[in-house]
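Q: Structure tokens for this one, please.
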Amino acid sequence: MFRRKKKEEAVEPVPANEAGSETEPSAAETTASAEVSEETAQVEATPAAVEASTPSAADTSAAAKPVASARGNRVQKVGIVTSDKMTKTVLVRVDRLVLHQKYRRYVRRTSKFMAHDDLGSTTGDRVRIIETRPLSARKRWRVVEIVQKAAK
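A: Here is the predicted structure, written as tokens:
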């Protein structure tokens, strides 16, 4: 799979004062130092504080996104569980619409992913999966939350 590269932000050097006298920092210097202090505060946060700041599974609003960890943003997909016959593993079907190049119509494409499931989702549930390290020969995804339970 192709990995997304992180965009590196270029930081402009602050010119030194020619006179060498101590003056108040400019607005740009103040905001730059505030950004650096916020980044260090995020890195120094304890794992318990990070878990407390993440939204709960009950909060299913689209605006609520998990806090980005030190590993960067991982790919997330939402799909429907098609099989739960394996132990702690589910098969998730993810549908997407692709524009046909010749006919200019949208065509539905389906992908199936094997995902590790500690939450106990069943067939028909809509779940959110996130990429993770290889857990087995074909399992590289993990179920993060059950978005919607299956209608029975």
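A few notes: DSSP finds two helices and five strands in the chain. Residues 74-148 form a domain with the OB fold (Dihydrolipoamide Acetyltransferase, E2P) fold (CATH 2.40.50.140).
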